[in-house]
Amino acid sequence: MSKADSIQRYVEQAIIEMPDMKDWQKAAIVLLSTKPDHKMTYEQIAEELGISTVTLYQFRQRSEVHQALLNFNLARVIDRIPAVTEAMVKKSVDRGDPLAAKLIFQIAGLLVERRAVEADVKTQVVSVADKTEDDLEAELARLRDRTND
């Protein structure tokens, strides 16, 4: 498959969610997805597309564009996932790399980091049975002042 055919396949995959896209929008998906590889700035991409930078930024903020970019990037790497996974397993086993093993287990959902949260909460029990309405209002005011500090 030629590079042009590959790019066309990526574009088609990316625009499944956006069948009514204009040509410049399809090209924007490709250029935004490959931006890290080609080191293009938003200004350069906008100039390449013949649109303003503001238009490009507004286009990029749309949720369906975000999804199209994810689809495009997934289509670019999906064929490589088995090879990458195999390389990670080989590295973790053959080289005894604990970080690679940890990542494999995390990806498989077999390892989840837990974080304990400790809280030092002081509880004060206030008996209201023998308090007057003025005492209760004063206590509420005192508690409000403490929470505002």
Automatic annotation (TrEMBL):
Coiled coil: none annotated. InterPro entries: Homeodomain-like_sf, Homeodomain_phBC6A51-type. SUPFAM superfamilies: Homeodomain-like. Residues 21-131 form the Homeodomain phBC6A51-type domain. It holds the Pfam family HTH_Tnp_1_2. Signal peptide: none annotated. This is PhBC6A51 family helix-turn-helix protein.
